[in-house]
Specification:
The protein is an all-alpha fold and about 170 residues long. The chain has six helices and no strands. It is elongated.
């Protein structure tokens, strides 16, 4: 159940990131045309592109963790006995969970502290920009908790004599 929810959430995030990328490319292309062809650059395009990239990066983090395509240095981990690798896997994932929960809590406080304040250029609420952080933390927490649940289910299956992981 949790796995289905996570897969759907990540699928939605992927579509959102793709749409943001398309908008960012259009905004940057518009700025290039306005600056070098028309000769009158637009003032809002640079900030808009920057905020879109911030959101894309933040939404990309849980996607990367879900797909397990993040960079890792596991040479030392792979040299350890299997039981130690298993324990370290849980320690790492639980550490990420604690970090994501901490990040979620304090990023919500940041939004509360900046509520009602606007950016200087395009007059966008700072809360909209800073909302990328708790959004990322929430989905990261969802992804890692799902992975932990799947790991536990696979371990139970192996313990019952099910052989390889599900």
């Amino acid at each position: 159940m949790l796995s289905k929810l996570t897969n759907r959430a990540i699928g939605l995030l992927e579509r959102i990131v793709l749409a943001m990328l398309a908008v960012a490319v259009l905004v940057i292309a518009l700025q290039v045309v306005m600056r070098y062809v028309v000769g009158q650059p637009l003032g809002w395009t640079e900030q808009m592109a920057r905020y879109l990239f911030i959101w894309m990066v933040m939404l990309g983090i849980p996607i990367m963790f879900h797909r397990k395509i993040f960079m890792a240095f596991d040479l030392l981990l792979q040299a350890l006995p299997k039981i130690v690798q298993l324990v370290m896997n849980y320690v790492i994932k639980l550490s990420i969970c604690f970090f994501a929960a901490y990040w979620l809590w304090y990023s919500l406080q940041l939004i509360a502290a900046t509520w009602g304040k606007l950016t200087s250029g395009i007059k966008m609420p700072l809360a909209v920009i800073y909302s990328a952080q708790p959004t990322c933390a929430f989905f990261l927490l969802l992804v890692i908790l799902t992975q932990i649940a799947e790991d536990i289910a696979a371990a139970k299956h192996r313990a019952k004599g099910g052989g390889a992981a599900c």
